[in-house]
């Protein structure tokens, strides 16, 4: 196992985490923006108003995309396990 292999595995791991987290972060950002816009228009300045819609939207998206997320995570883990013999050498 050399330095290039470690960098490649770390790069794949970071890329996988970013790909899996982007939809959830994007939906949270979009819902937060819409709620903030609603608060600015109606002049409702309640701090806790943003939390419930964000949590519901994020959990709903995670539930909808869970099979896709798990398939990517299983593929990444399977690739890591298959490369263990190359890591030992």
TrEMBL record:
Keywords: Bacterial flagellum, Cell membrane, Membrane, Transmembrane, Transmembrane helix. It is found in: Cell membrane; Bacterial flagellum basal body. It is a multi-pass membrane protein. InterPro entries: Bac_export_3, FliQ. One of its GO terms (biological process) is bacterial-type flagellum assembly. The chain crosses the membrane at residues 12-38, 50-70. Pfam families: Bac_export_3 (PF01313). GO terms for cellular component: bacterial-type flagellum basal body; plasma membrane. Its main location: membrane. Belongs to the FliQ/MopD/SpaQ family. PANTHER family: FLAGELLAR BIOSYNTHETIC PROTEIN FLIQ. NCBIfam families: fliQ (TIGR01402). Role in flagellar biosynthesis. This is Flagellar biosynthetic protein FliQ. The lineage of its organism: Bacteria, Bacillati, Saganbacteria.
